[in-house]
Amino acid sequence: MPRRLAAALACLTLLPAMVPAHAQTLLAQTQPLPDTSPRSTGTAAAMAPLSNAPLPAAPPARGAARTLAVTLKQLGADAPFQLRGVDGINGVPFSVRADEVVTAAKLKLRYNYSPSLIPALSHINVIINGEVAATVPVPKETAGTSLDREVSLEPRLISEFNRLNLQLIGHYTTECEDPFHSSLWATVSNASVLELTVTPVALANELSLLPLPFFDRRDVRQLNLPFVFAGAPSPATLEAAGAVSSWFGALAGYRGATFPAALNQVPTSGNAVVFATSQERPAGIEMPAVDGPSLAIVPNPSDPSSKLLLVMGTNSADLKVAARALTLGARALSGPRATITKLDDVTPRQPYDAPNWLRSDRAVRFGELTPVADLNVSGYNPDLVRVGFRLPPDLFGWRNKGVPIDLKYRYTPRPTVDKSTLNINVNRQFLRAYPLRALKDEQGRATRLLESVLPDGSAPAHHRIDLPLFMLPAQSQLQFHFYYDYLKQGACKDVLLDNVKGAIDPDSTIDVSGLPHFISLPDLAVFGNSGFPFTRLADLSESAVVLPSQPSADDYSTYLTLLGRMGESTGYPATGVAVTSPEDVAKVAGRDLLVIGTTQGQPLLTQWADRMPVSLTGNTKRFTLTDVYSSILGWWNGADGTRNARAETQLSISSAGTDAALAGFESPLQSGRSVVVVTSNTTNGLHNVTDALLDPDRLKEVQGSLVLVRGKEVNSLAAQQTYEVGRLAPWTWLQWYLSQRPLALVLMVGGATLLLAALLFLSLRSLARRRKAGQA
User: Fold this and answer.
1) Angstrom distance (rounded) from CA 387 to CA 364
2) Where would you find the membrane-spanning parts of this chain (predicted)?
3) For domain 365-487+497-510, which CATH number applies: 2.60.120, 1.20.1440, 3.40.50, 1.10.8?
4) pTM across the whole model
């Protein structure tokens, strides 16, 4: 019997590989929880991009059963679950990869509960996909203490997309009770662990399954996908690989992605992407005959349960065509292998048109940013309505009211005047609140009139809000909380009627089209958060990457991971990036430059040493230092007063150890263009920089013009801004220019005063002469 059950499970897992692509799309649309971003239904939870919980990296081994353990915090619960009332519930989504089957599951709860709960009437339910999987009792003996309990879960309840809810059924008396009494509580720690034992199941060699199995949106862990090259790849091959890594980075999204490079060696286990031409074939792979740009999926010869994605061509130019076909047209591919016979050029990208960024040419509807279903909530303790968005990092909001929002919402009118409100937060910072009107509100006659003719009986509201730009980092989130006041009616009269609803209208808009694009650089914060200025064009067609003359595998890995990071920002593959060597850097002088390498291997770091705020040569290190956190000019320049501190000193030291640095400065080849350098005194130290950029906690420390990374420690050492990118209206530019240079303003005012005094003096003297001549 167990063998038959295992075979049945394997068949069910293989089912997606055996249906046509259009049928898979229809099946995906019927999933109960299509959104796998880790969120919680509790008001304390937030979306994963705003969570500081690091996600565990996916292990490379895929051939045997393994156990996955994730905390509720890693699934999106930023705070412990606070279960309140007679029927308090909270939960998180979780998912299982399409190429894995769950054979065992358990939940390791860490919790406590109120001493007032009646054990015979109260308990905590563990619910999976709407079914009660286990019930946890609440005995008096252990009430009010921190407890640990392991709960076994039935694997048959777990599918690909799942929801884990924890529900408190609480009672403190056998007589009349207040459904929101303060004694009705239980707290479940977000350090509780969900543990799944999974067995891999091989998928078919089918291109229509892409991006499976190389990336699975059900998997919340960081993507780790090796790229394999045959020896030293050519610049065109690296450009093709960069497009593919940025595509996978965009798919990985909040999870983050790393792309270790391997030269002429296929990983012994796990999935990988292989780049090969007729002349360059990695060892250990049986390559099919290549007659043009081709894509294929084959088993990993060292691990049959894993796959290799082959990107092939007769030459490097063919590889670029195959990479573009993969990243721009993966949904059209099918079969185990596809040869690209024709691929037309796509429309050139325009500045700031990245799919993940708010459009800069018109207002954007909330319905374009969030599924309409997620804009609706119900109940007295509803979840937050979350609207996430990315802003172009160079929006100029100086002396501006902010980003305008045209907010429309509906709610169930209150029966009487109370303290119910719609609370609005931005990135968990309170912005403002609006009262929810009542049916008997004398000031709400128009609302009552509208309500009488509205089919759903909801009261509409409409407000204009200006979001201060300083509250909006590159990745932001609006959070709307419908708070309903609960009025107590007296003993035995408090009956909970959970019939209230609220909705943010999908036609609400946010509009950044009125803000100019202008920014002072270097500013590594915008590079770390958005990949700017390289991502100004989503395909990176005005960007070039300069690798050492003889790159190492670490140089390639750093390049691929950084492009994956930029793809995550833009949501578009870097099909226009150029890769070059230091000797040919003059050919890309008109582009923004990303320079990678150690001082020993990257000659540009020596040639441009006088412009760079850092030099790492073996044990000898030189740094430019400023007081990044100084607030002396804050009274004049406001929030931006600390972003342009002058260099105070140069520090040179000699010490052993691995140091890595991220530095920015204006390009020596063309004014207005930028250079960002990723360097270390050892090749393996380059990974410290990419690791810091993928860590939400350490990413916040990346700012200014120089960042030093030592292991897990990140320090900003310099904050010089020496050039501007973008364009302002002439009068606005003059105002801004003088605001940044108070001495120049004083001199101009003094000069204007002297000039006016001189004109008045000459005018009055001339008038006096005429009067004197008239008297004579």
Assistant:
1) 12
2) 743-762
3) 2.60.120
4) 0.81
